[in-house]
Amino acid sequence: MRNKFLIIIGLLSIVLFITNPNQEDYSNWVGEQMKKDQNALIEIGVDLAVVPYVKENTTRDNWYLFSIYKTEIWDGKEVVAIGAFNQFILDQKEVSGKVDE
């Protein structure tokens, strides 16, 4: 029984490691979220302005099985997202927090 548990934990760790999204994936995900239900002009603006801004203003804490992304936005605020299994989850508590200066 213990060996089966260790095998499952090992396989899960391997899957998490392989599907840990990189910073490029995160920037593209943010752009896709902003383009939902928008017109073509806004989609072009997102691709030209937002995605490069996110790339330049995001730090990634890579924990190998998952990553934590912190994007500094205007007014000293930051958006925090967790990436795992090629997916991202926004930390709603952190969206309105202040960035340390």
Please tell me about this protein's structure.
- The protein is α+β, with helices and mostly antiparallel strands and 101 residues long.
- It has one domain.
- The chain is 47% helix and 24% strand.
- It has helices spanning 2-18, 23-35, 40-56, and strands at 58-62, 67-73, 77-84, 87-90.
- A 4-stranded antiparallel sheet has the order 1-2-3-4.
- α2 (23-35) runs antiparallel to α3.
- It is elongated.
- The model has no long low-confidence stretch (mean pLDDT 89).
Any descriptors?
3 helices, 47% helix, DUF4359 domain-containing protein, alpha+beta, 101 residues, four-stranded antiparallel beta sheet, single chain, DUF4359, elongated
Number of strands: 4
User: What is the N-to-C succession of helices and strands?
Assistant: HHHEEEE
**Given the helix and strand composition, which structural class is it?**
alpha+beta
| Beta content | 15-25%
Largest sheet: 4 strands, antiparallel
Tell me the span between the first and last alpha carbons. 51 Å
**What characteristic shape results from the CA principal axes?**
elongated
